[in-house]
Each structure stands twice: as C-alpha cells, then as structure tokens.
Amino acid sequence: MTALTLGSAITAGLARAMSDDDRVLLLGEDIGTLGGVFRVTDGLQERFGAPRVIDTPLAEAGIVGTAVGLALRGYRPVVEIQFDGFVYPAFDQIVCQVAKLHYRSNGRIRMPLVIRIPWAGGVGAAEHHSESPEAYFVHTAGLRVVTASTPQDAYVMLRQAVASDDPVVFFEPKRLYHSKGEVDLDADLADAPPLHLARVAREGTGVTIVTYGASVRTALDAALAAEDEGISLEVIDVRSLSPMDLHTVAASVRKTGRVVVVHEAARQAGMGAEIVASITERCFPFLEAPPQRVTGHDIPYPPAKLEKHHVPDLDRILHAVDRVWERDTGAPPAGGVAAAGSTVEEGVR
Amino acid sequence: MTALTLGSAITAGLARAMSDDDRVLLLGEDIGTLGGVFRVTDGLQERFGAPRVIDTPLAEAGIVGTAVGLALRGYRPVVEIQFDGFVYPAFDQIVCQVAKLHYRSNGRIRMPLVIRIPWAGGVGAAEHHSESPEAYFVHTAGLRVVTASTPQDAYVMLRQAVASDDPVVFFEPKRLYHSKGEVDLDADLADAPPLHLARVAREGTGVTIVTYGASVRTALDAALAAEDEGISLEVIDVRSLSPMDLHTVAASVRKTGRVVVVHEAARQAGMGAEIVASITERCFPFLEAPPQRVTGHDIPYPPAKLEKHHVPDLDRILHAVDRVWERDTGAPPAGGVAAAGSTVEEGVR
Amino acid sequence: MTYTQTTPHHGSAVDGTAADAERTHESAARGRTPRSEDGGDVARLLEPDGTRVPDPALDPWIADLSPHELRALHRDMVLTRRLDAEGVALQRQGQLALWAPCRGQEAVQIGTAHALSAGDFAFPSYREHGVLLARGAKPEGYMLAWRGEEHSAYDHASINVAPMQIIIGAQALHATGWAMGAQRDGSTDVAVAYFGDGATSQGDVNEAMVFASSFGAPVVFVCSNNQWAISEPVTVQAKHPIAGRAPGFGIPSLRIDGNDVLACVAAMRWALDRARRGEGPSFLEAVTYRMGPHTTSDDPTRYRTVDEVERWAERDPIARFEAYLCAEGVLDDSALAEVAAAADALAAEVRAACIGAVTRAPETVFDHVYAEPHAPLAAQRAEYVEYLAGFATEEDR
Amino acid sequence: MTYTQTTPHHGSAVDGTAADAERTHESAARGRTPRSEDGGDVARLLEPDGTRVPDPALDPWIADLSPHELRALHRDMVLTRRLDAEGVALQRQGQLALWAPCRGQEAVQIGTAHALSAGDFAFPSYREHGVLLARGAKPEGYMLAWRGEEHSAYDHASINVAPMQIIIGAQALHATGWAMGAQRDGSTDVAVAYFGDGATSQGDVNEAMVFASSFGAPVVFVCSNNQWAISEPVTVQAKHPIAGRAPGFGIPSLRIDGNDVLACVAAMRWALDRARRGEGPSFLEAVTYRMGPHTTSDDPTRYRTVDEVERWAERDPIARFEAYLCAEGVLDDSALAEVAAAADALAAEVRAACIGAVTRAPETVFDHVYAEPHAPLAAQRAEYVEYLAGFATEEDR
Ligand SMILES: Cc1ncc(C[n+]2csc(CCOP(=O)(O)OP(=O)(O)O)c2C)c(N)n1
Ligand SMILES: Cc1ncc(C[n+]2csc(CCOP(=O)(O)OP(=O)(O)O)c2C)c(N)n1
Ligand SMILES: [Mg+2]
Ligand SMILES: [Mg+2]
To answer: How far is the CA of A41 from the centre of ligand 4 (A)?
Structure first.
C-alpha cells in the first residue's frame, strides 16, 4: 500500500492504464507540458510521448468529437475537460454521439471513451469552475457516470473506466484532490469491487445518508458528530451514479427507515430527486419519514465568498438528520403535514 | 373564440407578441421564407419584415449566442430550435449565459429570451427528431421551462413567455401541432392564469395523474378508459416544469393519496423523479401507495417503427394506475415488498 | 480576393504557402476555370455538354483512368440515381418514413468515393446514398434507417463508413479524430468527412478544421455545396465561396464543379495523395445542386424558382458524363442498356428489402444501449417484457 | 500566402474583395511592415525603441491625435499596469482569490478601448482590465469578482461593457448579436469582442464570424494574440497567422503590433469606421505577449523560457510609447511624475476597495436568479433563512 493523494492516485491510474494498453491515449487542454492545471497528467507526456498525451486546441466539442473518431479507429481515448463548467460546449458530442453510437450502430461501434471532469465546488474558485453537472449525464442513456471519493477508489475506478467498453463520465471531486489515503497500486482489477457498486462508507443503524463525491467526507464528519448526539448514521457512497446500485441503498433504507440524500448540485431534477424517487418506489413501506434532500440551492453557483451557503456542510446534513429522526409519520397528524410543510411554501401562487 | 390548431395558435401568439412590442424578433433556421419546417412562423416574415424574422446560418450556438447579444441591446428575441435534438450545440450558451446572466450581473442584465423547441416523439420521425430534453433545462437554475398541451394555452403561454423578463424554454409538443381547440384571440394576458400555474385538466378522486405536453392527451384518454373500470383519475397538466406548481399537485395528491407521473423522457433523473421526490417530501403521510413513474425507458430514442414501445401510451398508464390502485401499503406485508419489487430488479449485482 | 483557391499540382506539395497563392493567382489570371452559375470559379474537366476541357492541374490525376474505371463511375452514378428515385417512390407509397433525395449530386458522391481505398473511412451525412452504394453497402443497409426500422443498418466496419450523421457537422470532428488515429498508427489511411454548405456554419466543422490543421491529420473535407440548406440559400451561410474558408485554417482547398465526376475524382485523388504523403488535410468544395426537395417532407416551391432548377438540370452530372463517354466510345447503347438493367435490378432489390422488412421485437429497443451488462436496464427490459406478456394473457382469456 | 492581411485605407472601403487583396500584396511587397518575432508580418507605427515609423495605411487614422489624447493613452496604460500589479500583490496577500495579469497587453487594451465611442459596447474576456478601466469602471467594479465577492461588479449599462467572460469565446457571439441589434436600430454603435489566441479555436468564435459576415453586423473582433493559452503556444491553435482566418469568412482583417498603442488606435479606428459606414465586421489580430503567468495560480516556468519573456520585455508597450512621447516633447518628467502619482492613487483606491469589501449576507445567494417572482425559490430562501436563524438561537442559548 502506498499513501497517495486522490489526484496522484488518478495519475497513477492513468499511467497504469496507458502501460497496460497502448491504445489508451489522453487528450485535453494543457495536459501535456503543463501536466494539467491540477497536475493530474503530470509526467505522462514525458513518459508516454506527445502522440499519446495530446495538448489539443482550445475547443471542448473538438476534443470530444475527435476522441469519438479515435475510438472509431480503435483507440481508447481519455479526455480531460479542464473544469466542470467547460463541458457544455461538448454537450452535443457527448449526448448525441458518445452516448448513442453504440445504440445507433446496433452494437457494431464501441465507444470506450473516458471523460474526466475535475468537479464541484468548495475550493474558492472563479465563476464556472465549481459546477456540478452530473445530473445531465445521469439523465442521458448510454453513458456511465461515476465518481470516487477515496484515493483507492480513484485509482481502481479510473482503470475500470478505461477498461470499460462503454463511455464513462468520470467526475473527480476537486475538493478532495489533495486528500490522502492508502492505495494498493498492485490491485488486480478482477479483485476490485465492480465499477457499478455502491460502497457502505460507514455502517450505522439510525439514518441512511446517501451521497457521493466530496460530500462523502462531509457525511462521514456528520456521522461522527451525530454519534455524539446518539444517532447512528450509515453513509453510502454511491460511487456509480449511472447505473446506480439501488440494491445497496435499498438494503440500508430498509434497515434504517430514514434517509437523507446529499449532493452539491442544484436540487430541482438533480440526482437527489432520482435517489428519493427510487427509494420511495422500492422501500415505501419501510420509510418512517419522508426522505430529505440536502443539496445546493436552485441557483447558479454563487461567488466564492458565499459558496459555503450553497455547498451542503455538516450542519445542514445534521439538520436534515434531525428532521427525519424526530418526525414519525404513521398517519397524517392533525394538521401536522401542513405544519411540517410550512417552512417550505408548496405552491407558486 | 376561434378554432385553431396548437401550431397555428403559436403562430397567432407570435404575431400578437410582435405587433404588441416591436422589440420582439425571431431567429432560427428556415423560419423566414419557408415559415419554419412546421410552418409555425408562416407568414411572419412577410408581415413583419426580414429584419425581425431572421433566417440564420445553420448554427444553434450562434442563434442563441446572438440572441443573448440582441437581448443585451434591448431586444426580446424568440429563437426557434428546429427540432428538440438540435438544441445541444446551444447548450453551453443556454446553461452558462442565458440562464446565468441575470444572476451574474446582480440583476443588471435581463434576458427576456424565449427558446421555442418543437419537442418529443410519436410522429414517426428520423433519429434526433423526437427527443425530450426538458429535464436538462429544469435542472438549470435561472431558466423557466414551460409547455402547452392545448391551443388556448399555447397562444397565451407563448405570449406570457415573450412578456417574461426571464428566459423561457418553450416546449411545443409536436405530436399535438395539428390538434384543434378553441382559442380566445382577444384574451387579455392579465386575466389569464399565470404562466407558472398547473392546470387540472380533469377532476377525479381516485388517482392523480401528473403529466405535461402531449402525454396530457394520453392521460385524458386513460381517464376515460379508467372511468369504465370504475376508477376516477384526476389529470394535472403541470404546464410549467420550472418553477413547478407543487401546490396544485400536492392538493390533488392529498385528495387521492395515489399518484402516477407520466412523461416521454427517459426515467433516470428525469422530470418524474423530481415530481415523485417533491410529492413524497410534501405529501408523505397522505400517500396510500408509492408514486409510480410511467416514462420513456432509459434508452436513446428508438427507431420510429419501435417508438410505440418507448412513448407511454394509454395502456401503460392504466397499468400503473392499477398498481397504485390495488396496492395498499399501511405496513410492510410479510415478504410483500420484496415481492412487490420483484418485477423491478433493484440492484445492479 | 479574400480567399485562396488552391490549385492542385500533380505530385508537388501544395501546402497553402505564399508561393502557392501566387500560383493560384496565376492560374486564375489565365482564366482557366469557367465561372459557375453562382459567381465563383470552379475547376472543371467536363463542360455541361460533355466536352472535355483541359485543366493542367487536374488532368494528371485522371490520366490513368481506364475505360473500365470510367464505366464503373458511370454505372454507380446511374445506380445512385435509380436508388434515389426508388427511395422517393417508396416514401410516397408509405414504405419509407422519409427520404433525402440526392438527385443532382451523384458526381461528387461517386467521384470522391471511387477515389478512396478500402482502408479509408468515410463519414457521411444523411444525403450520401451514392457514397454508401460505392462503398458496398447492401440495400437493406441504406434503406432501413429511412423506413424507421433502424438508426443505422449497414456494417460500418466492413465497408469503412460511419453511420450516417443527422446532427449537422458533427461527423467532421469524428473524421478528424479517426485521421489522427490513422496517423498514430503510421498507416496511409485517410478519413473523409462529407457535409453540406449549411454545415460549414457549425462550430464543429470549424473546430474540425482547427484540429486537422494543428495535427496535420490525414482527412479530406468534402463540402457538397448544393446551394441550399433546406430553404436557406448558401449566401445565408457564406457571402464568399466556401472553399475560401479553409486556407485561413492552413488547409489548402479547391473549388470544383461538383457535377463533373472527372473533376471530383481528380480533386479527391489530389487530396488523398496529400494526406497519404503526410501533408495533412485538404478541403474540397464541390459546387452542385440539390435537384429534389430537401427531404420528401419538404416543399421547395416555397423558396426557389422552377427556373433555377431548370438551369441546373442542364448541367446534369450523368447526362454530361454519358455524352463524354459515348463520344469517346467508352460507352455504347448496349453498355447503357446493361447499366439500365443493373439499375432496375438494384431498384427491385431495394424495394424488396423495404417491403420485406420485418420490424424487430419490441424488447429489442433495450438492446445495445450499453456494451457491458447493465442490471437496471436489464430489469427495465424484463419489466416491459412482463408487461407485454400480460396483454397476451388478457387476450388469451 | 493563404490568408489576406487586409490593409486599412483611410476613408476608402476595404471590403475584402480581390482589389483589396491586390493592394495588400502590393503593400506587403513594399516591405512596409517589419517581421514580428513569431514570423508573421505586423503593422506598426512605433518601433520597440519608440521610433515612429510611417505606415501610409495606418498613419491617417491617428493624424489627428492631440497631445492631450496621447497623454491620456499613456496615462491609462500606466494606470492599467499599476492596477494589474496591485491585483497580483493583493492576491499574494490573500485579499483576492485569483488574478489574471494583463502586464504586457496594455497597448492593445487601451488603444482599442480609447478608439471607442460611448455608445459602443465592449465584450471583454477576463484579462481586459485595461478595457474596463478605460471605459470607466470603478475599482470595486473590476476587483470584487477576483476577490470572489461577486460574479461581476461593474455597472454594465453605464459603461457599456458586458460582464467579463470566462467561457472562452462565448462573448464573440454576444457582441455579434448586439451589433445586429444596433444595426436594426439604425444606429452607428459598434460592438467589440475581445478574446485571446486560444479562443479562436472555439466553435463560438467561428460561428460569430459566420453570423457577423452573413448579416454585415457592425462588430470588431479583437484577438489579443499573447502567444499562449495557459501552457499551449499559439501554434497549437493555428499554424498560420490568426488574422488569416477572417478573410475566409468574408471579414477583412489586420495583423498589428499589439504592443504599439498607436497602431492599435489606428487599426481600431479603421475597423470602427468601417462598421459605422455599414461595411460590416472587421478582425484585428494584435500580436502581443502575456508577460505574467496565466493567472496567479499558474507556473509559467513549466512551459516557457525566461529568455522568451526577456525578449518580449524589450518590446514593452509602455516604455516604447514613453520614449516616443518624451522625444516628441508630449511628456516630460513632471508629467510622468503626475501619472505615477495618479497610479499610486488608483492603487490605493483599489487596495481600499478590496480590503474594505464586506461579503454580502448569506441569503443574497438567492437574489437575482430570476427577474420575476419565483415562489419555490423564495420558499427555499425562506427555509434557509430560518435554518440560519436556528443557529443564532442555538448560540444565544
Ligand atoms: C445540429 C442540427 N441543426 C439543424 C438540423 C436540421 N437540418 C437538417 S438538414 C438541414 C440543412 C442542411 O443543409 P446542408 O448542410 O447544406 O446539407 P444538405 O441538406 O443541403 O445536403 C438542417 C437545418 C440538424 N439536422 N442538425
Ligand atoms: C470553454 C472553456 N474552456 C476552457 C477554459 C479554461 N481556460 C481558461 S483561460 C484558458 C486559455 C485561454 O487562452 P487565450 O484565449 O489565448 O486567452 P489568454 O488567457 O491568453 O488571454 C483556458 C483553456 C475556459 N475558461 N473556458
Ligand atoms: Mg446544402
Ligand atoms: Mg492567449
């Protein structure tokens, strides 16, 4: 085992994937000489050469579109989108081409493409540098969408993503790039948990926290704090947002009967909506309280000085835990729901 | 009152908006001489002149991006995206610019832009011509997202969208373009229901159907059929997907305790997830059964000959109605949930 | 003049340098190329009446064409036209959902496709029926998508043609990426991106030129300027000849008569040769005309005159080539009859492929969304199959 | 040569026609413009040492510049540099989250911005501090975004400048649309899109050229080619001079020494004049250099040599202009001292604006998402306010 940051675990994963398979190549802005603005590709151009670590012109549609062509030629391109907020110029290529080519061609064409995206906020960055666009991709059939919250997962999941014959959007929680953990660099992919499985990051009995990315850390902190208050939190790191491992999530919810979903992205039609809806469909009779969502607000990402009022923190998670913990809902309380709902105006009148 | 198709009601709405306000102008591909591939802008260039009905070069980012500039200059641009599947090249301009400029400028810059999108399937069209991308926009803070399912709504809501100082994505259910209805062309906008309100398309007592767009028709047909079987369906046409009028939806669900959400878009992280999650949060104690989603599958839109197996039809709605109607869920039945859930494999193992 | 129309020179590098531009000015000055209807110069080897005119730059590229090859070009153009007519007819009869006619554009499609080698890879739009045919697609292959049975029905790998592209311009980037791959493989394979005049306005096509130029990728951009993008005349996209765009990106370009199959072969060979020699991308603007509607859903009388269509009919690519070949003795009546018979046979095959098509089973809509197992989708499929089975049961009762 | 470097001619239409190109070749042949370091021709009025050189095409455009105006140009360049240095310092001291230095690019920013009229509208990127300053933005206006307090803090309508744009190239389309609006209003207002060399690869910038050309929109594209897009040299974006792109779109372009403020004023006046006369868009490539890192987060030693930076230091835009103005007697020591004092004062103001900045109340994150009432968001806000109030209560206990 080696102690690595999450960022350097990805570097190691890329290097390993590239030496395992010489059809793997990297494309992106500033990934060569500079080694990427986060240094995730540091040293790879030197090691594998400029033909395999390609500094591209400044055009995201171009990067993803040429990667599609490279995949058609038999390559396995790993593209880097420099920041979350810069993926949108490539949206058409991702949604209409990358996601659909296998389907359109009745399986004749494979799209073993990985789209790496340094992702989400909490790092005091400039506008457009703290976006959480994952729900767009989760809603897009044909893509796999994953994220890692530990260096070990980052190392293994990156390699699994490269090995997958499906296109994978790989979100890298930039808030955790510098967080360290033990990584087994000799891990055999065959022994690793499959890419699509969720991970129980902490076992508990009282309330299930379902989350992913950097919020896993926040949820684990919340679990420690809740323990002091006598509430046991089970924290599930979903890891794979599409497909989602509902089995693991549902098993936990059936045990606890209470669930809080946490993510940074805006709430409306976000990943949390899917998780809550799926849980409700599958675990309805087991629910002791309506699932709560703790998410970014339905606003554009705010200026950095205000981001702490947008990104869910420990307190907001605990607040929601209190709500699902305290509230018992066998039958409608007399006027109770209206009351319970009163902090949230339901209509738009 | 005049009998108009939904398509010509929009034409009338555009003409009215243009004569009411000479800062309103139209941009799009083939909207001038041709009058649009659906003839929705037919006659408008002749009537209002080429400077106000602009045939643009073939570039959607260009269309939306120049519309942003026109809005900055004080115009109120209404852009047409020729088909749902062609909006993605403009995604960056819509998400990063149109949706955010008011926020970014602390309210100094207004974006009174309407993005009209002929939308969704069921018309036997070619690939990329039957997409349902609404959830992407609903998830994007700063946008309003609406759709009309009757000619009257189409006429009024289009005018309201143009009058709004916020950007509005206006989805036009192309399956209903030729459906007729009475339209009050002299309607005063002040008397019309606000743009953000849902409409109870049919009152009922047994099960609430929440839907929008062309599926409203299907749901109304289902309500007729269900009546024969002795089940009373209340059909809610959400109309405004963002913001959503949860007040109207929740009032219905509290009455019926059972809800089926219907849309054509893929299920995962779709609009239905948001509706189910919101209902569960607000109406949990009133729910007699877990809400059901009847949606397009999590697949790219299939070839036209197979689309009837993707777009929810009357039978699929009735099937879901049966499930929420028959199933009573006071307490977990002995092994019942596993059984109930057995048609849907929950995990991904 | 604001753009450079680069002249191909046989065997010599034409890399868009100043020297090259001089040459262009020079040859333009010689008045070598007749003016096309729409006001720009086009390079041409066959006049509309079939007269062979010399072009010192293009001539060498087709000098070696054998009578056999000339007949093959002719034959494929005739087959394409017949296939296209059959597509229109089948659509009218309700056998197809839609058809995008290519009538009038046979020369650029067949000429460029014939110049390709087997290892090259074509990235067509939705109108390149001739390219599919020339590359060997089966009738089902090119018809079933238009019937709504499949999104793409030919076998891409065996004929080296990407699925037809409906998202305007997207394929230009795919071709460029594929070419970057070919380059990395050290092969001499070349990618070809086909698109229309309208497509040149899309960001993707321009980004493709940027990437192709930066990496010197072996890709040929073939723009079939058929004067219209649905109802919009090419002047909405470009006030100046489209071929003039490419040199600004460092890509030599050539504006040719897209209704002259010999010019199309020659120009394509020039471009392919450059690519194979490692000289990078080229751009061809083939000036042609869409004789039919945009698609069978379109009504072109709303935006263009019969007059205009008639003027272009006089420049028909097949009539012109036939006149030339007959005059040269390469074709005679019996050969023409044989080609007509082949066209009839193809039409019958096409018709049979359409009418005999059986729609796939409902649950196949779930197939091939992913290459690897995907449990939630498998569950969705199972649920739907169970749901459908429920009907059978009900009906059985 | 594959591109046309259009020469501006005082008072005469330069529309990118053949005649125009001839003129260009002609003037190039006269050897008028010295070669820039990176191998292309640039138009220039001031040598790096401050020597005034004639350029018959540019000269007339600045003939009327008064000593007062010359001093104003100098002053704003000095202020910009000082402001920029203060930005870097404030970032180092933790007062700013980030800063994108513009050192070295003062001439193109101030020269072009000074040529504008009040009614014109500028669409800057994130590095155009000089443009903001010249247009009259207040110190808070240009600093607070970099502190992370606001996304955009100046009053766009009062200074006619759009919020700075971080999405590379997006603003080129906004400028074009704004220009289409100005055109429809029958005004003579002109839009200016500022962007970098890297931005020219983006689809948006190319689509902007397509739209601007098709509609003859009164927009000037100003590309500050500072040789780098973060770590990528301009050759990754373009193997040929960037100014060569525009003519292919039907847009006359000019490649100028971006470190020569007089050339920048002249070229911009030429372009603005064309636009105001209804002659449509123009494109300026200002060849300059980013002396600092990409942003304060960047480490340029990873990708470029000290040598290169030093060579460009010798072509400093301010030193050059000062040398010229002093030689001409327009500036003397006391005037220079006065400007230095003004720069000190500005720096103090800027510093005060940063250090005195008070972060807005938490609930303001919900403000201005929509222009019109939005009940669910109002409810979300109320819920958050209530939640925050809960803390106060807890703490009170
Ligand atoms: C991104 C996108 N926008 C719009 C369309 C709708 N559309 C289909 S064909 C077409 C015109 C294309 O014109 P051109 O590129 O000249 O090709 P042609 O049809 O003439 O062969 C348009 C606007 C589309 N398919 N894709
Ligand atoms: C769409 C998009 N992609 C990537 C980035 C990240 N990025 C910020 S600045 C920059 C380089 C820009 O170079 P250039 O256009 O030359 O402008 P300069 O910074 O040199 O002024 C990049 C890649 C971005 N801001 N937007
Ligand atoms: Mg065309
Ligand atoms: Mg730069």
So the answer is: 22
Residue nearest to atom 3 of ligand 2 (CA): A86
Q: Of A96, A273, A341, which has the smallest distance from its Cβ to B269's Cβ?
A: A273
Asked if C377 reaches chain A (Cβ–Cβ under 8 Å), the answer is yes
Alpha-carbon Rg for chain C in angstroms = 22
- Burial D175-198, CB ≥16 within 10 A → b, else e: bbbbbbbbbbeeebbbbbbbbbbb
C-alpha span between D106 and D76 (Å, rounded): 8
Three-state DSSP class for residue D285: strand
Closest Cβ–Cβ partner in B197, B247, B299 for A346: B247
Helix (H, G, I), strand (E, B) or coil at A164: coil
Nearest residue on chain D to C173, alpha-carbon basis? D203
Angle formed by the axes of helices D170-184 and D203-215, nearest 10°: 20
Q: How far is the CA of A318 from the centre of ligand 1 (A)?
A: 53
User: What is the β-pairing status of strands B24-28 and B76-80?
Assistant: parallel
Predicted ipTM?
0.95
- Determine the residue among D150, D187, D210, D211 to mutate to test chain B binding: the one whose Cβ has the most chain B Cβ atoms within 10 Å: D211
Its pTM stands at 0.94
Pocket of ligand 2 (CB under 6 A): A 29, 58, 60, 82, 86, 89; D 127, 166-168, 195-199, 226, 228-230, 290, 294
Instruction: Dig out the tokens for D129 from the structure.
Output: 């501090």
Catalytic residue list contains B102? no
Question: Do A106 and A81 meet the contact criterion of CB atoms below 8 Å apart?
Answer: no
Locate tokens 């991702």: which residue?
A94
Q: Could you tell me the strand order of the sheet in which B233-237 lies?
A: B199-202, B233-237, B207-211, B259-266, B292-296
Q: What is the pLDDT along chain D (397 residues), one digit of tens a residue?
A: 222 222 333 322 233 333 333 323 223 322 333 334 444 589 999 999 999 999 999 999 999 999 999 999 999 999 999 999 999 999 999 999 999 999 999 999 999 999 999 999 999 999 999 999 999 999 888 899 999 999 999 999 999 999 999 999 999 999 999 999 999 999 999 999 999 999 999 999 999 999 999 999 999 999 999 999 999 999 999 999 999 999 999 999 999 999 999 999 999 999 999 999 999 999 999 999 999 999 999 999 999 999 999 999 999 999 999 999 999 999 999 999 999 999 999 999 999 999 999 999 999 999 999 999 999 999 999 999 999 999 876 655 5
Dihedral sign of CA atoms A206, A211, A217, A218 in order = negative
3-state secondary structure of B90: helix
- Which residue in the set D16, D236, D248 is minimally distant from C245, CB to CB? D248
Q: Distance, CA A253 to ligand 2 centroid (Å)? A: 45
Q: Which residue has the tokens 């779709």?
A: B270
Q: Do the chains contact at D199 and A297, CB–CB below 8 Å?
A: no
Distance between CA B95 and CA B310 in Å, rounded? 28
Q: Is B233 helix (H, G, I), strand (E, B) or coil?
A: strand
* CA dihedral sign, ordered B158, B160, B164, B167: negative
Cα A38 from Cα A34, distance rounded (Å): 9
Q: Is the CB of C228 under 6 A from ligand 1?
A: yes
Q: Do residue A303 and residue D151 have CB atoms under 8 angstroms apart?
A: yes
Instruction: Quote the distance between the C-alpha of residue C139 and its chain's center.
Output: 17
Name the residue among D125, A266, D212 with its Cα closest to residue B99. A266
Could you give phi then psi for residue B180, rounded to 5 degrees? Answer: -100, 155
Distances in whole angstroms, Cα of residue D324 to Cα of each of D34, D45, D319: 18, 11, 9
Between the CA of D223 and the centroid of ligand 4 the distance, in Å, is 9
Distance CA B33, CA A120 (A): 46
* Nearest ligand 2 atom, CA D229: 13
CA of B89: which chain A residue's CA is closest? A92
Chain A: nearest CA to C184, how far in angstroms?
Answer: 7
